[in-house]
Amino acid sequence: MLSLNSHPSGRHFLQIPGPSPVPDRILRAMSLPTIDHRGPEFGALGRKVLAGLQQVFKTRHPVVIYPASGTGAWEAALANTLSPGDAVLMVETGHFAALWAKMAGKLGLRPEVLVRPGTDAEFAHAAHWRHGVAADLVEQRLRDDAGRTIKAVCVVHNETSTGVTSDVAAVRRAIDAARHPALLMVDTISGLACADYRHDEWGVDVAVSGSQKGLMLPPGISFNALSPRALEASKSARLPRSFWGWDEMLEMNRDGYFPYTPSTNLLYGLSEALDMLLGEGLERVFARHQRWAAGVRAAVQAWGLPIQCADAALHSPVLTGVITPAGVDADALRRSIHQRFDLSLGTGLGKVRGRMFRIGHLGDSNDLTLLATLAGCEMGLKLAGVALAGSGVQAAMTHFAAQAASPVQPVAA
Ligand SMILES: Cc1ncc(COP(=O)(O)O)c(C=O)c1O
Predict the structure, then answer these.
(1) At 152, phi and psi to the nearest 5?
(2) Of the residues 137, 173, 208, 252, which has the maximum number of CB atoms within 10 A of its CB?
(3) What pLDDT score was predicted for residue 125?
(4) Does residue 316 line the site of ligand 1, with CB under 6 A?
(5) Residues 206 and 49 sit within 8 Å (Cβ to Cβ)
(6) What spacing in Å lies between the alpha carbon of 241 and ligand 1's midpoint?
(7) Omega before residue 19 within 30° of 0, cis
(8) 185 with 153: CB under 8 angstroms?
(9) How buried is 413 (Cβ within 10 angstroms: 0-12 exposed, 13-18 middle, 19+ buried)?
């Protein structure tokens, strides 16, 4: 017998914390014919997107674009600045921070993983995954590093696995307070263009980001934003690199070109995304993400379920992690919601697999798509037999109705 969802009609609800839904305007822009990436038209496209990205990262320094997912840009950040055996301080705030540390080890670096001591008995298996980067611990570790062997401090701005947004400026202050020369590297793969990010002001040396989150593009391109100190470090760094090398890239980028074949159609999409985001204004983009996040949190609180991020000051504007009650397998719940309501939610990753699910509220969304998402979650939770304290959908409606969206003028298509 055919299930009701054999031929689902309407749009699929892609509410994972990236890839996020791609606006029609961007899809249309990407459908243009591919052009010669060494021809006369391409340079203007390349120069435009590189300059636009500088605005989004809030930097005067170069940004590099790779035809790769975010993992590639992680590798590029390390490979361009460090040498075999270098110690790197990696702060484990969640699954992605842990993966980046693992990569550092595979590349021949010496990752030292800093873990905040846990005090959360109920969530002892991953207590430190409920908090952000502890800048005081970073400062102490750097002060103790008398021989200045640590060459970089690596942190994740928005931990997509947990929904915690760390205070990057505080990490920079910690490094400066310890008078330590380590580079500051920041993964803002899911933070950029959703959460406030200020590359130059926060003194970040290398930022890593990707296309499939706040930039509202399909996966496939990723970025490094650089600093003069990172560029200086790259001159003496000895980790092998070829594809990832900044030098040839920056040389070609001067005229808007690339040393190898770029993802031309994704760059069309990027050009459109930059028009949309910069046309709207980044501060407004951040404000609507904060507003959505607060509405989703109001819903989770009304259900009576704990939020993965235990620090109210660090709730992510990008996603909310919801801890399921003991005995409720979060992945079984996600599967049933997907099957019955054609709604995709983020899985619990690594240490929190099966214990939580993630609601993405980023990019091309609005109050009603989020209410529908919450309705799907609420129905799914009830069907799974979870006794909810109240209606999250009602709480979110109350929030959204009271906190009217600012009169954002749609950017002309
Ligand atoms: C914070 C963070 N870092 C790194 C990655 C890895 O990026 P990718 O899957 O694009 O290679 C992701 C992917 O979701 C992420 O969210």
Answers:
(1) -155, 150
(2) 208
(3) 75
(4) no
(5) no
(6) 21
(7) yes
(8) yes
(9) exposed
Residue 91's beta-bridge partner residues?
Answer: 114
Question: Which pLDDT score is estimated for 123?
Answer: 74
Among candidate residues 246, 84, 201, 97, the one with its CA nearest the CA of residue 151: 84
The answer, yes or no, to whether any atom of ligand 1 lies below 6 A from the CB of 69, is yes
Cβ neighbors of 248 (< 8 A, separation 6 or more) are: 259
Q: Is residue 195 in contact with ligand 1, taking CB distance under 6 Å?
A: no
Ligand 1 and 307: CB distance under 6 A: no
Could you tell me which residues come within 8 angstroms of residue 410 by beta carbon, excluding any fewer than 6 positions away? none
- What is the structure's pLDDT at 413? 45
Looking only at the bridges linking them, the beta strands covering 183-187 and 206-210 are parallel
With a 6 A CB cut-off, is 18 part of the ligand 1 pocket?
A: yes
| Nearest to 348, CA basis, from 375, 378, 326, 321 | 321
Q: Which of 179, 197, 166, 18 has the alpha carbon at shortest distance from 90?
A: 166
Which residues of the chain have a pLDDT value below 50?
1-2, 410-413
Residue 156 CB less than 6 A away from ligand 1: yes
Cβ proximity of 42 and 264 under 8 Å: yes
**Cβ contacts of 8 within 8 Å, gap of 6 or more:** 342
Residue 15 tokens, joined = 């509410």
Compute, in angstroms, the gap from residue 217 CA to the centroid of ligand 1.
Answer: 14
Asked whether the beta carbons of 129 and 352 are under 8 A apart, the reply is yes
How many Å apart are CA 323 and CA 355, to the nearest integer? 6
For residue 156, the ligand 1 atom closest to its alpha carbon is: 1
Q: Match 């921070």 to its residue by tokens.
A: 97
**Rounded to whole angstroms, how far apart are CA atoms 271 and 104?**
32
Which pair of tokens denotes residue 412? 């002309």
Q: What is the pLDDT of residue 2?
A: 46
Q: Rg (Cα) of the chain, in Å, rounded?
A: 21
Question: Does any ligand 1 atom lie closer than 6 A to the CB of residue 75?
Answer: no
Question: 3-49 pLDDT, tens per residue?
Answer: 555 677 899 999 999 999 999 999 999 999 999 999 999 999 999 99
Helix (H) or strand (E) holding 77: helix 70-81
Choosing from 66, 75, 96, 344 the residue with most ligand 1 atoms within 8 A of its CB, the one to mutate for a pocket test is 96
* pLDDT for res 6: 60
